Amino acid sequence: MTSLDDAGPNAGSAEGPAPRPGPVAGEPPVVFASLIADLMPDGRPVPRDEAVTLLRRHLGRIQNRVQQAFEAHDISGLAAARWLAAMTDTVMVGIHAYTEATIPPAPGDKPWALVATGGYGRGVLAPFSDIDLLFLTDAAMSPRGKQSVEFMLYLLWDLGLKVGHATRSRHDCLVDARGDATVLTALLDARHIAGEAGIFERFAEAFRKARAEWGLKPFLAAKRAERHQRHLRYGESPFLVEPHVKEGRGGLRDLQTLYWLARYAFNVQRMPELVGAHTPGGGLLLPEEARAIKRAWDFFWTVRFHLHLVTGRAEERLTFDLQPVVGARMGYTRHGLQDGVERFMKHFFLNVREVARFTRILEPAIERASLGPPAVVPASDKALTEAGFALADGKIIAAPGHDFTIDPVLMLRIFRMARDRGLDIHPLAFRAIVRHARHVARLRGEKEASAEFLDLLSGRDPATWLRLLNEAGLISRLLPDWQRIVGLMQFDTYHVYTVDEHTIEAVGVLAALERNELGEVAPVASELIGQLQSRRALYVAVLLHDIAKGRGGDHSEIGAQLAQQICPLLGLTPEETETVSWLVLHHLLISQTAFKRDIEDPKTILDIAEVVQSPERLRLLLVLTVADMRAVGPKVWNNWKATLLRELYWRVAEVLAGGLSVPERDVRVARAKEAAALLLADRPKAEVDAFLELGYPGYWLSFDPETHARHAAMIQEAKEEKAPLTVRTRVLDSRAVTEVTVYCTDHPGLFSKIAGALAVAGASIVDARIHTMTDGMALDTFWVQDAQGGAFEAPHRLARLSVLIEQALSGRLRLRDEIRKLKREPARLRAVTVPPRVVIDNHASNTHTVIEVNGRDRPGLLHDVTAAISDQGLQIASAHITTYGVRAVDVFYVKDVFGLKVENERKLSGLRKALEKALETAEAQGGGGAGGRIVAADKA
Q1: H helices within 633-738, ranges in order?
Q2: Could you tell me what percentage of the chain is helix, strand and coil, using 3-state DSSP and rounding each to the nearest 5?
Q3: Parallel, antiparallel, or unpaired for β 376-378 and 131-137?
Q4: How far apart are CA 460 and CA 54, in angstroms?
Q5: d(CA 622, CA 532)
Q6: EC number(s) in its UniProt entry (predicted)?
Q7: Which of 235, 246, 234 has its CA nearest to residue 307?
Q8: In angstroms, rounded to a whole number, what is the distance separating the alpha carbons of residues 925 and 376?
Q9: Which of 46, 116, 342, 548 is the right S-S partner for 120, CB 3.0 to 4.6 Å?
Q10: Within this chain, do residues 200 and 225 fall inside the same structural domain, yes or no?
C-alpha cells in the first residue's frame, strides 16, 4: 500500500514511471492514517456508506494538497500531474483491497489485475481528467470477478470520479488492439496498480511481441490520420489566438503522439532514452532537444492544470477570458511595452512551434530508424547534384561532403530545390537545418542568400515554404527583426493568428491573387496584380507590413523605417526599397478610408490621391490591402467590404488619371438629375419635376440613377396612400447586405430610433446614408447584415424588422428595455479591453464635421451614440460602421441645425462629453464588455 506521504510530487511520468520521493520539500509534516487501516479496522471492512465517506475525505485531501502545492509554486504542472496520479493510486489500491475484503470468495474464482491506461496509465492526471481503468484477466472473468468490478465502479462513481473502463482478457486486448488504434494507444500506456501482477507482466510481454510482429507502419498511419482529423477540428494552424492546449496542433496530444510512436517502435519508457548514439534508433535526439521536449511538456501541463483549477472543469481551450488569468497565475507581468498576457501567449506559441518542429523531425526519424538507415543515392538530376544535394527515400538531402555549417546557404537552397522539383525535404535534412539554423546569421546581406530567400518569398506557393523556413528558425536568423513577431499575439478578437502567421498567410493570399484563385471574391485586385511593375517590392512589403508590431507607437511608421534598413540587405534596389517603405507606412490607408470615411465626399478622394500620387502605388496599395484583410481571419472579408474597397479604388484611380479632377458640385448634381429623369421618362412630367426638386445636392451625389428612380416610385406611392411611414428592403447578394430604406417625416432622434429598432431585429448596420428632403421628409438608407456577416434576408425577419421600425418611431416600442434584453457577448470575450475614444475632425471634410467613436461593441451601441449626437442638436448626414472583433469604430458626418460644420469649441466640448458618457454607459451595460454590435435578439 502506498501512503500519501510516499507519493511525492515527482511520482510517475508522462514519459514513463519514475521514482517516488517524499512530499514537497518544506511542506509542514502532516500524518495521514493508512487508508486501508481506516477502511478495514481489525481486518474487517467497514459498511459501504462509511467507506464512501472515508474515500471521499481521502480524495479531497489528495486534491487539496496537490492544489495548494501547485498554487504556491512549490511544484510545476507536470510534477503536480504526476503527484496527483500517484496519490490517486492510493485510492485505487484502497478500493481494490476493500473490494477484495467485501466480496466473499467463491469456487472457481480466478485472479485479475487492476491496470491504469490512458493518461492515468502514463502517470499523469489533471484535476478533472478521466480515470481510465482496465480490469485484466488471463482468461474470461469469473462471476466473482465481475461482481468485484461492478462493486469497484459503483464506489468510484459515488466518489464523483469520471471513469473510463474496460474488462478484457489478455487475448482480447491483443485482438482489440490490432483492430482499433484507440485501444492500442491506451494499452501502450498500461500500468499495473493492484491485483495479480503476473497477469499484467504476461500481457506486457505478449503485447511487446505482438507490436514487433505487426510493425510500426499500421499504427503510424492510424495516428497520422487521427492527428489530421484532430487538427481539422481544433485548428490546422498551431498559431490560432484561442488555442486548444490538449488537442490543437503543437499541443499536448502531438507530444504524446511522439511518445506513443517511440514506445511502440523501441519499447522505451521515457524520451531521454533516445539520446545518445547507443540508444534505440541510433541517437534520435540531442540532449538539448530532449530538454526542450521536457520544457514544452512541463509548460503545457502547467497551463492545463491552471485551466482546470480556474474553471472547475476539464477545460482545455485557452480562451481570451482565461489567458490573462492563467498568465497571471504563472507569474507573467508587464515588461516594457508588452502586457503580461501577451508575454504569456508568446511563450505559449514558442512552445507550440517547438512541438510542431519536433513532430516534423522526430516522427519520420522514428519511422526511418525502425526500418534501418536510409540509402543516400546521387540524384539523376545533374543540377541537383551540382547544387550539393542527393536523394534518400525519394526526398532531398544534403549530399555527402556538403555541410550546412560550412556552407549555410545550402539551408536556403535546399528549400528552393525541393520546391522547383516537387520534392519533400528529408527529415534528417530538416533536423540538421534546425540544429544549425544559427549559422544562417552569417548570410545577412550576402547576395546569394538574399536571392534564394527572395525567390522563396515571391515564387510558387510561397506560404508553404515560408512556414517551413519559419518553423526551422531561418527567417529569424536572416531577419533579426522577424524574431520579435514570432508567436506575438495581439490580445483582441479581430486577429485570428499570431503576427508571424498572419504575415505568412498574407503572402499566401498574394500568391493566390496571382494565380487568379480569388477572381470572384476580389476581382479588381486579381486583375491589377498582373499589371504591377513592382512585384518583388510588393511581396517584400507584405512580408514587412507588420514587422514593427509589439514595439509601441505606430507600427506603420516604425515598420517603414525598418524597411529602409532591411530591404538593401535583401538585395532590393533603392527604388524598390523606397516603394516597400512607402507601402508599409501607408498599408492601412485604403482600408481605414473605405470603412471610416464617406467616399462620396470629394475631399476624401482628393486626400488619398494626394498621398498616393501614382497609379502604380495605388494598385500596389489596393492589392496589399486585400492580402492583409483576407489574412486576418475567415470572417473579416465580405462582399460589402470588397465593394467599398473597389469603389474607393476606382474613384481615386479616376482622379489620378486626370479624368475627373472632381468637377463642380453643381455639374455633378445636374448630371445625376438628368440620368434619373431619363429612367423616369414614362412617369408624368409634373411628378418627375416634383421629385427632382426634393433632394439636396448631397442626396443626388449619394446614389446611382437606378436607386433615384426607385426612390421616386416609393415617394409617389407614399404620397398617394398618405402613408406616414414607408419601409422598403432589398437584398443585395453581390454585396452581402440588405438595403433598408425608411421614408417618413424627419424629426430629431430619427436615426437613433431606427438604429435601435434594427438592433432589436438582430440586424447589424454596416453603412448608412441620412437625407432630409426639401419638403422636410427624411429618406434614410441603411445597409445591414446578419450576425454571420451575410445579407439579412429571411422573409419573417424582414417583416419583423419593418414592424419594429414602425413601433419604434411611433413610441410603442420601449427601445432601451428591449435592447437590454438582447443577447450579450460570450464571457470569454469580456477579458479583451476596449478603451473608449472619441475623435472629432474638422479637416477630413470640407462640408461636415467628422466624428469617430471607438468603443466596446454591444447591442444598441449605435442607438445610444446617435441619441447623444441628436441630443446635441446635430444632424447626421452619413454613418460608417465597422467592427474589429469586439471593437466598434463608428464614424459620423454631421452638421449643426444651420447646415454648417460644428466649430464652436464649447459645442465641441459638450459633444465629446456626451459621446464619452454614452460609451461609458455601454461599458456599464456590458458588464465590462457585452458585445454583439447591433446584433442579437433575433438569432433564432
Answers
A1: 639-656, 665-679, 685-692, 697-700, 705-721
A2: 55, 10, 30
A3: unpaired
A4: 67
A5: 11
A6: 2.7.7.59, 3.1.4.-
A7: 246
A8: 68
A9: 116
A10: no
Least confident segment among 327-331, 621-625, 791-795, 823-827: 823-827
Q: What is the reported pTM?
A: 0.79
Beta-bridge partner residues of 117: 132
Shared domain for 119 and 14, answered yes or no, is yes
Q: Whose CA is closest to 618, among 581, 655, 667, 592? A: 655
| Whether 483 and 625 share a structural domain | yes
With CA atoms as reference, report the closest residue to 847 among 781, 883, 894, 897: 894
Question: Dihedral of the CA atoms 465, 470, 476, 482 (nearest 10)?
Answer: 90
Distance in angstroms (rounded) separating the CA atoms of residues 171 and 168: 8
Q: What mean pLDDT, rounded, does the chain reach?
A: 86
Q: Would the pLDDT of 814 be above 90?
A: no
pLDDT in tens, 306-330: 999 999 999 999 988 899 999 999 9
Report the alpha-carbon distance of residue 894 to residue 915 in Å, rounded: 14
Give yes or no for a contact between 728 and 714, defined as CB atoms under 8 angstroms apart.
Answer: yes
In a domain, 36, yes or no: yes
3-state secondary structure of 273: helix
Residues 832 and 874 in one domain: yes
C-alpha cell at 916: 464619452
Rg of the chain (C-alpha set): 34
CA distance 821 to 553: 39
- Do 206 and 284 lie in one domain? The reply is no
pLDDT at 922 over 60: no
Q: Which amino acid is at 26?
A: G
Are 586 and 633 in contact by the 8 Å Cβ rule? The answer is no
Cell numbers for 152, please give them: 469497484
The last residue of a domain, from among 214, 229, 248: 214
Count structural domains, the chain: 4
Contacts for 768 with CB less than 8 Å, ≥ 6 apart: 751, 780, 781, 782, 783, 878, 879, 880, 881
Condensed to tens digits (0 to 9), the pLDDT of residues 388-441 reads 899 988 889 998 889 899 999 999 999 999 999 999 998 889 989 999 999 999
Residue 419 lies in a domain: no
Q: What does DSSP assign to residue 717? A: H
Residues 197 and 306 in one domain: no
- Look at residue 462 and tell me if it is in a domain: no
Same domain? For 546 and 597 the reply is yes
Of 324, 295, 297, 326, which is closest to residue 309 (Cα–Cα)? 326
Is position 91 within any domain?
yes
Q: Distance (Å, rounded) from C-alpha 144 to C-alpha 127? A: 32
Nearest Cα residue to 619 out of 592, 657, 571, 563: 657
